[in-house]
Amino acid sequence: MDTLPIPFVTEDAAPFWAGCGRGEFLVQMCVECRKPQWFPRARCRYCHGWNMEWRADRGEGSIYSFTTVRRAADPAFSMMIPYVIAFIDMDAGFRMVSHVVNADPETLAVGQRVRVTFREQEGFKLPVFVAGR
Amino acid sequence: MSGWNGGIAIVGIGEAGVGRANGKSSFALLAEAADAALADAGLSLDAIDGIVSPNSLTDTRLRYAQSVAEYLGMSAESLRYVLTDALGGAASGQSIHNAAMSILSGYATNVLVVGGDALRSASIAASPQERMAEVMGHEFEVPYGLSPVAFFALMTRRYMHDYQVQPESLAGVAAQLRLYAADNPVAHCHGQRPTVSDVLSSRLISDPIHLLECALVSDGAAALVLTSAQSAAVARKKPVFIKGRSIAFGSGYGKVHEHMSQVEDLYTPRTASRASSARALTEAGLTREGIDVAFVYDAFPILPSLFVEGLGYAPDGKGAEFIAAGNTAIDGAIPVNTHGGLMGYCHCGYAGGMFMFTEAVRQLRGDAFCQVPAAKTALIQGYGSHVSRFPTTILGVEA
Fold first, then answer.
1. In this complex, do B143 and A83 lie within 8 Å of one another by their Cβ atoms?
2. Residue B275 — very low, low, confident or very high, per pLDDT cuts 50/70/90?
3. How far B327 CA sits from the closest chain A CA (Å)?
């Protein structure tokens, strides 16, 4: 029962997850207003256009905020403790929640540069981040 | 007065099992709180034709309010309005607003708002923390184990970074707000006076948040009876009137969200409470200076810190210091959460915010344990639904 949760893949975001499976970080862009959209959706939240496209991205950004979880709400994560959850400000123009996986939490800082990598989680490739310049 | 300013009154309040249920079920607590509120109002259950309930963390039935009506044995012949407000922490404020709306629209005449849970002692399959984590986004949040406490830790860290706030100030918020509960014999944490150093030496849950900077896990239930101002004229006790209300969604600007990680501005409790309270005060014909006692949702120190900023009591970035320095104590600039709040009085899950309303009514009746002298107006700033809903309610002694 305590297996780690995997993403519930929606039709809207299926191409994103397919990209992760290939080791690519795809960003959804609105063809009409050129804004990036996170989470991926069939329709643009900003200009309400339906013409969306995917663009390969370097998957880099900086830490907006982070926390070291020492007591997991979901018991499945207990084996991972302590682990770092962060808000990442992606260079592509949106903010996402993920893990920072390689760093000593004591040395992490707001503003630190991170880049994407993919962690195998119950057979799924999940985008997580590593600290580094 | 009529409509939202003075048209609706709270005529009865009741609480049950605050802190510890002593073996009673969640539904028994709700029934006990409902009985107390009805007795306080001088009304029989058959006079109630509407019921509104926040949803429950221990019983996830969708039609929860109807389950409560079934348990209470409400009359099918007289009942006209039943609503479950599945809105997390915001359910308390929204339940009051929805109950008032049902009366203003003529749908119902006397409405019972009742919520609570034997959250601490009920035997449930999943912990309350796990239940709250389960309702996160299943595509981009649950796979990372995002939970409310982790989210508020992210908010707290950024606040400390942007405004050079020291851990002692946030721990001071927890210590200060718990003092009201320490003095209140009804409170879950009666008699407990953790110091700033006690707070900082309690274990880290999700840093920088320590155990004593978290809402309690309590048993408890609260109930209120609402009716029209006309009916309130013959109420048993001094009625307390709704003077104004509003709600802000999301940050109060930009786009609405539901997922916690989709929030556009991490300081959304400040921006949203600023927008919502301004509208509510205008409706009430009041200014901030006219408020005698305030209540803010205080699940973690970052929330009341941002709320006292949003409500205009402290400059941006100074909210934690403002509270830690004693400005919200009974003799301070603006007494806040005089019952002891979610960290000291009772956090029985989604209905924890109900106690802000029962205590506000006690304050305006002059019946509170830590009484603000001659309090005539109260402002209640709610929070909930993944930092997406911020209902404000203003109560007063005059219609």
1. no
2. very high
3. 29
